[in-house]
């Protein structure tokens, strides 16, 4: 059974990391798995890229031209909006690899055009890492329910027209995907329910399978040792992790700073450890201690960062099944987060983490104060690890996908 995973990036972003982990877990389960990426170094084991003298140049050109239709929407507010209108060289590369089944992941940045999917010619599994496959272009719909019907009047485009880019993209998807042998997999029940509501996926088979995690690598390390290695001080440490930094869209950075200012004003003393890139935040601007760890690309450093923290704080405005929450809990560090998207499926409030209603900055500050002063942190740490073991074990996830592949190939025959 030969499976080709298709992802825009090899390493950039949570979806790319999840795709690479599933590819690795599939190989460990005996599946002939390949990972085709549009952007990345690529090698014969971890990933391959579209090949040929001009492949990289065309990929970069496509990535730069992909946003052109957005130029007409100067009032748009969304961070990422993809119409995938340009074909890419990935389709030819997939055909050269002659897979029995294609497994799609995040297809932004022009990894495959909407129309190219109908030319794959084999059964398709599509892991929904965000809402783009079910919408007219946005990657998270927020409070908008346009994707349930046909999109248009898109708030993220700042559009007041029914026949806007979002409706055009939605119609292209409907036409191109109508006859596809496509099965969707959502890592969270929340996203599965959203997919079943959408006009694009309501008549399709939608499964729920978590993202995998190697729990032998992602496990607790002695906190004091981790702090010495990373240069973190004694006393409570709150961790915030985002590859693009504190102020990345949807990550809730401004909210976090307001929450921590209120926590500090209440008399709590702590250090905010920032793992990721983006802008530098100085203690002089916040009033509390800030330690920049940088953007770690290796798993060992990330395990140390989670293990060194007392609590990971996740204040995203929208999210599916964040890798950062699963990673933190696997390292025995509970997570405080807002009840958005699939996050409530990952955390048990006051048992292995903390859940707060969206927008509740004051409530989040109170919850953090409770954790630092009154919570049984050792018990919550153990419970966080137990939940990670129950939900994300990579051999269990790989077997669930392998069973799905076998089922779909048998049905196709």
Summarize the structure.
The chain is of the alpha/beta class. The protein has 13 helices and twelve strands.
What is the level 1 CATH name of the largest domain? Alpha Beta
Total helices: the number is: 13
Please tell me how large the radius of gyration is: 21 Å
User: Biggest sheet, in brief?
Assistant: 6 strands, parallel
Classify the helix fraction into a percent range: 25-40%
Poorly predicted spans: none
Compute the average pLDDT: 91
- The CA-CA distance between the termini, in Å, is 13 Å
Per the principal axes of the C-alpha atoms, what is the gross shape? Answer: globular
CATH architecture of the largest domain, by name, is: 3-Layer(aba) Sandwich
Q: Structural class, from helix and strand content?
A: alpha/beta
How many domains comprise the coordinates? 2
Q: Could you please say which CATH topology of the largest domain applies here?
A: Rossmann fold
| E-strand count | 12
